[in-house]
Design brief:
By secondary structure, the chain is α+β, with helices and mostly antiparallel strands. The protein is about 15% helix and about 30% strand. The strands form 2 sheets. The protein has a 6-stranded antiparallel sheet, with no helix packed on it. The longest helix is centred in the N-terminal third of the chain and has 12 residues.
Length: about 140
């Protein structure tokens, strides 16, 4: 691979979202996080639709590549309560969902693809990152 190939790659459509995701992961103590697919109780998906989870002691990120309604197993990070939010990998915006008990299983319904396409919640381009953070009591 030459320098010009790498430069061309930086201008491809997927390069900007990767820079946005990098900022998210840098804010989430990535060095202590480990992959943990046991967080996905149901709705794992397969191939390009595979839901992927990583977690640390007090936080977790679940990447949902094409929408849907995965069921998340709670209680795998510390705390009695967690704060949940959606991170939009297209824009870098974070939207607070709320505070939840950190027990049992929970469905988190993905938002619409955009403000203009609120009805579009699955398929290509409907990817979201669910961010769970331990709520100190």
């Amino acid at each position: 691979m030459t320098y010009s190939d790498r430069q061309t790659g930086m201008d491809l459509p997927g390069a900007f979202p990767m820079a946005i995701l990098k900022k998210l992961f840098e804010s989430q103590s990535m060095y202590e996080m480990v992959p943990d697919q046991s967080m996905i109780a149901s709705g794992q998906g397969h191939c390009a639709n595979n839901v992927a989870a990583i977690r640390g002691k007090a936080n977790a990120c679940i990447y949902i590549p094409s929408g849907g309604k995965p069921i998340i197993k709670m209680g795998l990070i510390s705390g009695k309560k967690v704060t949940a939010s959606w991170f939009d990998p297209r824009t870098g915006e974070t939207t607070l969902i709320g505070e939840f008990d950190n027990t049992g299983e929970r469905i988190f319904n993905v938002p619409g693809m955009s403000k203009e396409l609120t009805w579009l919640k699955s398929g290509r381009g409907c990817d979201w990152v669910l961010v769970l953070e331990s709520k100190s009591l």
